[in-house]
Request: fold
Amino acid sequence: MTCSVARRIEWVTVSSSSTTASGTDPITEAAPLSLCAREPHVPADRLVAEMVPPPRFDAVRFATYIPDPNQPSQTEAVGVLESFAGGLGGAHAVGGAKRRLFGFGKAPRTPAGPRGVYLDGGYGVGKTHLLASLWHATPAEPALKAFGTFVELTNLVGALGFQKTVQTLSGHRLLCIDEFELDDPGDTVLVSTLLGKLVEAGVALAATSNTLPGKLGEGRFAAADFLREIQGLSAHFRPLRIDGEDYRHRGLPEAPPPFSEDQVTRAAYAAEGASLDDFPQLLEHLARVHPSRYGALTDGIGAVCLTDVRPVPDQSTALRLVVLADRLYDREVPVLASGEPFDRLFSEEMLNGGYRKKYFRAISRLTALARDAKGLVEKPQG
Reply:
């Protein structure tokens, strides 16, 4: 049984066109879709209901996580998380939260010690797999568990308001936060306050990130402004280190080189549900769509075909591309591209800066999706 939730999305179509490479024969198949022609609007009342593990992680469980035998911390993490999930079977948190929602009864006393686990490790060691497995293993109805990225959580607050978000999530037994990234002081204060309220209500927390809780913000812009709030956040979690190399590169071949524009265009016309966009135009379009809607932007897309891939021009554009790469990876949407290879998307300055872990994660995920897309290109005859 999967936990996917049907989405209700309003679409606004904008004028956009995808052109074939010059000099090619006319293509007679049905025209592909275009991400640049989509401006999705997701109703606020669906945001909480859609906070479940993404389709890529529907079927994952602790039993399907394959620890690296050379990394004992991975095996240890599975054991700790299984015990953590088993300890969430009581009614204390849920009952206490419901009493508070209806305005009677005393607030539950904050449990002694951390009320959450924090999975720390590099990209590609299986943190999201483990986080989703924890969600599945927690003995509670899906409506009493929430799973979302940090961006989705902050967007929820923006849509519902702070007090309504606290009231809504206080009825949950578990909140899982993937890709816990603090990129500005405002979000730091917001999430710190929110999690403090939820812990007080008895909600268990679990999060993933590439940085230990006490070191979030290191190497980021205005990192000194984060320190006080970050230290408070750290107290809510038991850090659980997961060592290892990116599993997407274990024993796998190098990423396939980019294809020609003609190959990408023809594949887009031939593949059912494929989109075809000029990469620079797509980057411009992403600036007009809130990152919280990037998942909806890709709904119904079977493959993403991009022409003229080139290095991103600035950090804001790069961070938007990271979010899109995450949503495509979650949904297992293959990406076929012409132009520059994906490991040249970000400049050396970006890869050495404060957001380097985000950029390396994006490269890793886009590389995996590029491998998945190789079969879309017809093999030459003869």
In short: Strands lie at 10-13, 38-41, 116-120, 145-149, 174-178, 204-209, 238-241, 274-278, 303-309, 335-339. The first helix runs from residue 72 to 86. The CA atoms of residues 84 and 134 lie 8 Å apart. The chain has a mean pLDDT of 81.
